[in-house]
Amino acid sequence: MIINKISDFFSVGKFIFLLISIILFSCSDNAVLNEYKDFESGYWAYNTPATFEFSIADTSVDYSIDYHVRNSMDYEFYNLYVTYSLEKANGDTVRSSMHEANLVDPTTGKPLGSTAGDYYDHTIPLFQSLHFSDTGRYQFTLKQYMRRDTLEHIHAVGLRVSPENTGS
User: Fold this and answer.
1) What is the mean pLDDT of the segment spanning 144-162?
2) Is residue 156 part of a domain?
3) What are 81's strand-pairing partners?
4) Does residue 70 contact residue 154 with C-beta atoms inside 8 Å?
5) CB 3.0–4.6 Å: which of 32, 38, 78, 138 could bond 104 by disulfide?
6) Per-residue pLDDT, 18
């Protein structure tokens, strides 16, 4: 009976995806941040940046920063352009640029990323071996930079900041 209510509330694909996400996010790891911002409407508006805040406590190690994109099968482009900005708490910009991610193989049309039901999850490496010179709070802002004010069928974006394996 509970399963029937859940499946009435969520489509089967959404329920499976939610279950897998809960299991994966329950596992502990050493990430400084691993967070998603959901777009309940199923679209990412140009004027709706995804902002993530995190703290760096250890400057003796380098960090990896990956961003995540969750889209449905109906996403009409093979790629996604984003702009990003990494800033210190005082507003000083550490890094800022534009980035292109392929969500679909442009030659074959085959979707990239992992799939759960009607959704595709993409982990896009942005920085490897990034050194933070200062401890403290940082803010990372991600904006869609396509040629449309409203980008349909993007359901969430996320950010993962994690120390790189030091081999010890």
Assistant:
1) 96
2) yes
3) 100
4) yes
5) 78
6) 44
For residue 143, the Cα-to-chain-centroid distance in whole angstroms is: 11
Tokens 């499976």 correspond to 16
Whether 22 is covered by a domain: the verdict is: no
User: For residue 36, what are the contacts with CB-CB under 8 A and spacing of at least 6?
Assistant: 68, 70, 156, 157, 158
Q: What is the pLDDT of residues 28-79, one digit of tens each?
A: 479 999 999 999 999 999 999 999 999 999 999 999 999 999 999 999 999 9
Does 6 reside within a domain? no
Within a domain: 21: no
Instruction: Count the alpha carbons within 13 Å of 23 in the hemisphere toward its beta carbon.
Output: 6
Euclidean distance between CA atoms 7 and 70, whole angstroms: 21
Residues 6+ apart with CB under 8 A from 83: 96, 97, 98, 99, 142, 143, 145
Q: How many domains does the chain have?
A: 1
